[in-house]
Amino acid sequence: QVQLVESGGGLVQPGGSLRLSCAASGFIFSNYGMKWYRQAPGKERELVASISNQGAIQNYADSVKGRFTISRDNAQRTVSLQMNSLKPEDTAVYYCNRWNGPYDYWGQGTQVTVSS
């Protein structure tokens, strides 16, 4: 059974940094690409970044390109999102998921608030 546990969120000032982590279980982690999503109040969930199963290929939404870095540690079964130069518009609940879902299951997410 797929389990995804996000952590690392918090309150930061604009320009600050935060590192999120997603701990995965219930599947062969190294066989799956992973993605980070976020959902701001009143908005749809949006794709932030993706990483291939072995970490060789990384892609980012234009809104975060150059500021965020996705990485993974297959031994620890974790996917991370390093967020630098944070902006108020980055405020959202951040979720991880496998490249192709399951889209009917999401972890609790981790709240990121960027505010002065």
Explain this structure.
The chain is mostly beta strands. 0% of the residues lie in helices and 47% in strands. The protein contains no helices and 10 strands. The protein is globular, with a radius of gyration of 13 Å.
Concise description?
With 116 residues, this protein is mainly beta. The protein has no helices and ten strands. A hairpin with a 4-residue loop joins strand 7 and strand 8 (78-83).
Write the topology of this structure.
Elements: E1 3-7, E2 10-12, E3 18-25, E4 34-39, E5 46-51, E6 58-60, E7 68-73, E8 78-83, E9 92-98, E10 110-114
**Low-pLDDT runs:** none
What's the mean pLDDT score? 97
Strand order of the largest sheet: 2-10-9-4-5-6
Terminal Cα span: 40 Å
Task: From the alpha carbons, calculate the radius of gyration and give it in angstroms.
Answer: 13 Å
> What percent of residues are in strands?
over 45%
The largest pleated sheet is described as: 6 strands, mixed
Envelope shape: globular
What level of helicity do the residues show? under 10%
Alpha-beta content class: mainly beta
Total number of helices? 0
Number of strands: 10
SSE string, helices as H and strands as E: EEEEEEEEEE
